[in-house]
Amino acid sequence: MIKRILIIIVVLAGVGQIHFQAEAKASDLEEISSGSSAPTAAPDTVHLNPKEPAGERIGEFSKGHQKWQTYVSATGFDEGKGEMYALHLGYGYFFLDNFSVNIDVLGSYIRSGIDDNGVAAGLDLILRQHPIKGHDNLWSLYLELGAGLQQQSTNFAGNRRFNFRLLGGGGATFRVAENTRLMAGMRYFHASDAGIEGGGGGFDGLQFYAGSMFPF
Questions:
Q1: Fold assignment, 65-215
Q2: Pick from 6, 49, 192, 206: most CB atoms within 10 A?
């Protein structure tokens, strides 16, 4: 009887051990399976673009991203016409990777060479492309082209105080914080009344500017 009991205990112990080992293996397989699932992207690589080379993130330049921008500009170099100094506030939206449309409003002080000094207010629509970027988007070079309107209190670019604006040029950005970039550039600048009242020659000069971008 004792011998039979011992045999039963040994059998039960063996079955228990086999069952325990089976459970352990199943648990290991479950952990391996869950561990092999796609890892969650790190915060700084959430916006990876599959078309970008490995190790380079498109980040705030990717389609659907937005930005605020503010900068100051100085416009001149059309002999005898004077200079214009402006504060610009703008909003940009990337409708394609590396390609944004921007709306800027501006207020200007005009030191006119053909009339009294005065002020102006304007609105620009600017297309901007970032074709060259540094590693991890630390910096970028961009090209831009735009057009706008300007109402001024003094003659500056012709016979009318309402003028059209054309501009084109390029610049660079440099990231100084997670959501802050410095920007600076140079543009060809034209302002005129498009010949509506004789034109008066318009203004053709250069505009230099610098400021900040705030992607979000």
A1: Porin (2.40.160)
A2: 192
Contact 187/168 with Cβ under 8 angstroms? yes
Give the Cα separation of 209 and 86 in Å (integer): 9
Sign of CA dihedral 173, 177, 179, 182: negative
Place of tokens 């909003």: 91
Q: For the chain, what percent of residues have pLDDT higher than 70?
A: 70
In this prediction the pTM is 0.71
pLDDT for the residue 161: 84
Looking at residue 138, the DSSP 8-state letter turns out to be S
| Domain extents in the chain | 1-41, 65-215
Contact between residue 182 and residue 176 where contact means Cβ atoms under 8 Å apart: yes
pLDDT at 19: 44
Instruction: Please choose, from the candidates 108, 93, 99, 208, the residue with its C-alpha nearest in 3D space to the C-alpha of residue 148.
Output: 108
Q: Which of 47-56, 125-134, 185-194 has the lowest mean pLDDT?
A: 47-56
- The residue type of 89 is L
Measured CA to CA, the distance from residue 40 to residue 215 in angstroms comes to 23
Q: Please, what sign has the CA dihedral across residues 118, 119, 123, 124? A: positive
Q: How far is CA 76 from its chain centroid?
A: 28
Burial of 71 (0-12, 13-18, 19+ CB in 10 A): buried
> How far apart are alpha carbons 213 and 216 in whole angstroms?
10
